[in-house]
Write a structure and sequence with these properties.
7 helices, 11 strands, alpha/beta, six-stranded mixed β-sheet, 244 residues
Length: 244
């Protein structure tokens, strides 16, 4: 048994190198991965299942082929692709997950998995925005708009997010320690796996001085990150993204 986790690839037509990196990754793991968890922000923006940029079609086809070959796919929404819906999930034969869920790893350990943005409670401005765009009424209204209007709204939101993020302290945008502790305790778990912060690391003593740990997946940029879990445990791995 081998279970893999990836997040924060931020696929877009502006970064063909990341598309190529993911395609190579999916080719490499075919036949060597029982489960693949996509923990959000796989796409840099998602404006509805009715529009996929042509440059990203090969990724969709490769994910579908991976699923058909026997790898179970699971998709969890991030803060960039929270509008991914059942139509997309059906196309790649993936299971859409709730924003928090406990799973059993190959070594028998229980792990709580999430994208991670809900843990960044010190960024109150972002949490207000998150509550807005996760509201079903807001989403239904957005998805009812013409494609051109949705594209423009998405561009404006990305620009505003980039401007606001530049002015915030890094600590504000990281997870809150108490929110991590509460999440683990509520899930009765010793392990939390998430992405979002772009700070790949393994953190120990997340519940108290003697228990709990947190594995943070890295974003894909000059390197790509993934978590590999087998019966022998989990390992956070990094490889360079080829530019050509």
């Amino acid at each position: 048994m081998r279970t893999l986790f990836i997040s924060d690839i931020h696929l877009s037509d502006q970064r063909p190198d990341l598309t190529r990196a993911l395609l190579h990754f999916l080719d490499d793991i075919q036949g060597h991965c029982d489960q693949l968890y996509l923990l959000g922000d796989i796409f840099d923006a998602w404006i509805g299942d009715d529009f996929i940029h042509p440059d990203l079609e090969p990724v969709i086809d490769r994910l579908a082929a991976l699923s058909k070959s026997g790898t179970a796919l699971f998709f969890q929404h991030g803060n960039r692709d929270f509008l991914v819906g059942q139509t997309f999930a059906d196309r790649i034969n993936a299971t859409l997950l709730p924003e928090e869920i406990s799973i059993t790893l190959p070594d028998g350990q229980q792990a709580l998995i999430m994208h991670g943005d809900q843990l960044c409670i010190d960024d109150t401005e972002y949490q207000q925005f998150r509550a807005l765009v996760r509201n079903p009424a807001w989403q239904a209204d957005f998805l009812s708009k013409p494609l051109a209007e949705r594209l423009e709204i998405a561009r404006n939101l990305r620009a505003a997010s980039k401007e606001k993020t530049a002015g915030k302290a890094l600590e504000i945008m990281d997870v809150n320690a108490e929110s991590v502790r509460s999440a683990l305790q509520n899930a009765n778990s010793q392990l939390l796996i998430h992405g979002h912060t772009h700070r790949p690391a393994v953190h120990h003593q997340q519940i108290d001085s003697n228990s709990g740990y947190r594995i943070v997946l890295g974003d894909w940029d000059t390197d790509f990150w993934y978590l590999s879990c087998t019966k022998d445990g989990c390992e956070l791995l990094r490889q360079p993204v080829e530019t050509n």
